[in-house]
Design a protein that fits this description.
Helix 3 runs antiparallel to helix 8, helix 7 runs antiparallel to helix 8 and helix 7 packs parallel to helix 9. The relative contact order is 0.13. 80% of the residues lie in helices and 0% in strands. The protein is mainly α. The chain has one domain. The chain is elongated, with a radius of gyration of 19 Å.
């Protein structure tokens, strides 16, 4: 398992280096620019794409067939992709959380009010939801039918995620304490985080089940 994780880490360093540059650019823009939900949420969405791209490179190089000769189970082959997803998403979440905290501290206290722990926690909770769900829907389809056929679900998920970011961006100024909701926004986000983590775990389990039943050729 450790060897599989190291192999995917090397692949990510070689083929996904551009992602790091994009994440840094978006974080810098969100730090010094005006309020823009897309600049904040897109790096987390991008982190969810890393295991999808690693899976695509595996299939293009026929690694998924060669790995059948190795002393590892199909469940381990699936799990390493989800672990890479967790690693990349947590890394981006930590960086985004630091940037957003600095941004709030740098803001004019007469305009923004300085650092607000509740607002920061709500933002981070939404980011966790976006990160966990971004690849959860498409990964089981890719492990069941292959990357080429599974891309349909992937593109649908990207479209839904982008639409969600736009909605969040337009509603960002009314979510905290809004009369439109019967419960505080932080509680709604907390429930969403739990559900998103559950969806990620369910996706992980389904991918193992589907991949064990798949005939590789």
């Amino acid at each position: 398992m450790k060897g599989l994780l190291r192999k995917d880490f090397y692949m990510a360093c070689k083929y996904c280096r551009a992602y790091l540059f994009i994440v840094v650019v978006f974080l810098m823009v969100s730090l010094f620019g005006d309020d823009n939900a897309f600049m904040v949420f897109y790096p987390c969405l991008l982190a969810g794409m890393v295991p999808v791209n690693l899976l695509a490179y595996d299939e293009n190089s026929k690694w998924h067939i060669y790995s059948g000769t190795l002393p590892c189970t199909r469940g381990q082959l699936v799990s390493v992709k989800y672990l890479m997803g967790v690693i990349t998403q947590v890394t981006v979440l930590v960086l985004t959380g630091i940037v957003q905290a600095v941004r709030m501290c740098m803001a004019d206290p007469h305009i923004r009010g300085g650092f607000d722990l509740t607002e920061w926690a709500v933002t981070m909770g939404v980011l966790v939801i976006m990160s966990a769900v971004s690849s959860s829907v498409s990964m089981p389809f890719m492990f069941r039918y292959g990357v080429e056929k599974g891309r349909i679900a992937y593109y649908v998920m990207i479209g839904v995620a982008c639409a969600g970011m736009m909605m969040i961006g337009t509603m960002g100024n009314i979510l905290p304490g809004s009369a439109l909701f019967s419960v505080p926004a932080e509680w709604m986000v907390a429930v969403g985080v739990v559900l998103a983590i559950g969806i990620y775990a369910l996706s992980w389990y389904l991918s193992i089940v589907f991949y064990n039943k798949r005939e590789l050729n």
